[in-house]
Specification:
Distance between the termini: 27 Å
CATH superfamily: Jelly Rolls
Strand order of the largest sheet: 6-3-8-2-1-9
Number of helices: 2
Order of helices and strands: HEEEEEEEEEH
Structural class: mainly beta
CATH topology: Jelly Rolls
Mean pLDDT: 95
CATH class: Mainly Beta
Radius of gyration: 13 Å
Number of domains: 1
Length: about 120
């Protein structure tokens, strides 16, 4: 599926925990919004690389036990097999877009909240 839009503005306007915007055979584009005090959740993608670009908010990236701060305009690359989590430590929603290669979620997935995403994952 082709996708052409202002991804920064799309990520800023997004209020859902997760929304898949585009899925191709080898990659997937997703926007996310993590509320203050929230997190993506600790996970490992065995066969999937993930690239995350942060648009708004502040947080913490935990990668293989190492902690790094994140803020707007930070990019984090998570190689397949890396235990990771992203936590919103700020006062506003942490807005980002992420690219999975290959795709991680069914095309068209929308999870309005993390609880909804967790329920769908189990």
């Amino acid at each position: 599926m082709n996708y052409h839009d202002n991804i920064i503005e799309k990520a800023k306007r997004n209020t859902f925990f997760r929304e898949v915007l585009s899925t191709n055979t080898k990659s997937q584009l997703v926007v996310m919004s993590i509320p203050p005090g929230g997190e993506i959740g600790e996970e490992t993608h065995d066969d999937i690389d993930q690239i995350l670009f942060f648009i708004e908010g502040n947080g913490e990236a935990l990668l293989a036990g190492e902690k790094k701060s994140i803020e707007p305009n930070h990019l984090v690359i998570v190689p397949a097999g890396t235990l990771h989590n992203f936590i919103n430590t700020g006062a506003v929603d942490l807005k980002l877009f992420t690219i999975y290669a290959p795709p991680e979620h069914p095309d068209g997935t929308i999870h309005k909240t993390k609880a909804e995403a967790d329920q769908a994952h189990h």
